[in-house]
Amino acid sequence: MVGDLSDVRAMEQDFPSTRNESGYQRFRLGDFVFSRDEYFVHIEWRAQGKKLSHTMSADVFLRALMRDVAWNFFYGWVNFDDVFGTRNRYDRVELYAGRYHPVYKEQGLDHSACFDSSFVMQAFRSMLDDWTNVGYDPFAAPAETGLTWQGKKQGHNRAALNRARESCRRMPGLPGDVPLRTDRNRYPINRAFLDVPQDEPVIEAEPGFEHEVHAFNLFAYLSRSDVTWNPSVTSVCKHSLFCPTTEEYILPVKHANDRIEWFLQLSDQIEWRIEDRATGRPRASVVMRAGDVAAMPADIRHQGFSRRRSMLLVWENADPRLPQLYEDGILPPSLAGEFQEPGSVK
Amino acid sequence: MSFTDTKTVFGSLDSYVKGGIEVIDDDRRHYAFSNVFEVASLAKPYEKVVVGKNLRYVIETLRAEGTSDWFTASHDESVIVMDGSVEIDLVKLDDPERIAPAHIEGSIRLEAPPQGRRMGLMKLRRGHQALLPKGAAYRFRSTDGVGVLVLQTIHGPHSVEKWSEICLT
Q1: Which tens digits make up the pLDDT trace of B86-115?
Q2: Domain architecture of chain B: domains with CATH
Q3: CB contact under 8 A, A218 and B53
Q4: Which residues, at least 6 apart from A231, have a Cβ–Cβ distance to it below 8 Å?
């Protein structure tokens, strides 16, 4: 959940900021300094007594920052690009620059630092609030939000930044659970999914079971998503979470999970660029079309490319013990060991 | 800005195009890559073929053809209809602990018709997702030829794993 931004001003003294000639605030978290101008975000740090800097498109940075905040730093590593990112250490967050880039690492020019998650969250929310201009929605597809991220500081777009991530307890539409998406609650059908049938299942519940006999139109629910690359939760089986999402253009981060996660492509196509988690070395390209299922191993980073808006079911195991079990090598990073000789059935 | 593709492409048993893996420096088996329509096309009716596995949690693909046996579980499950039309009967078991005690996970097949109160009927089409509540017995009935279901559950005695047969290698 992004949460309310009304309290961020009170926190600014913890990461002192000043405004530059473009009107944007400058932020410092430990030895990391963040600034933006009309086009770019600049990240600075020190290593081996030298000042290092890294520049990203402000558009790319804000899209990544939005996911990191909305996902509460997600599982594992959220690489904003090949150099900068965050690692969720659960209650703590590690910020790094060059840590997982072979050249920065080899030259000793990488830097990382851990902070309390709440502190980084407040800082990132403040950064998002200040650096997002009116009209720009970091969750929207580029075709929907245009180029309003450019230029000198101009206003805010807090409505876009304050969206809450929709996580059901059992299933959307059940009494007391997250509501279904409709025109009435301001979830119109997205322009790319106007052809998706909106019929709801027929439910014939016996008296007394109206709250337990439940189904909904998942594809219609997704057709009304107003965000891209931002999974919601639509069903729960203990730690097993079905997290469907709609994707368009490029996943703004290279996500390196601290556990195996799975994708089930529900519609259209996504191409995944797979790299080694620690070095970024290319490993594979995975093309997923409707009906395809694939695991994302626990030792990779992945980035998706969706040429039109598509529906993807992300499947997560939210067991909090998993990061340590993979880190310690107790669990293998992939399912390769499950394969038997052809024809055998376990 | 306009885009040429305005049609959403879903898959079906009759029309699916499987993707693939371009290996650069890797092993295809790491991705356990399969396709639910292809798996269902080769499966027996309501065979619970595991297509995703995350420790004890699984995603199973079921070929919906005719009427299934009755199943229950000690935990919530959910099902998505990927193709076809399916009806689901639900019965609140009088004694769910006897068939699926809390320490037993996964779908359990009932050996006899369920004893309990009828909860209702759900009629689902492609894209619909239904809750299969814990302690309830359920059965599927395909109403429009052969369909494809995706089940969110936990590995159980009826789960079938055949990774080498279904995955790209």
Answers
A1: 999 999 999 999 999 999 999 999 999 999
A2: 50-162 (2.60.120.10)
A3: no
A4: A243, A244, A245, A314
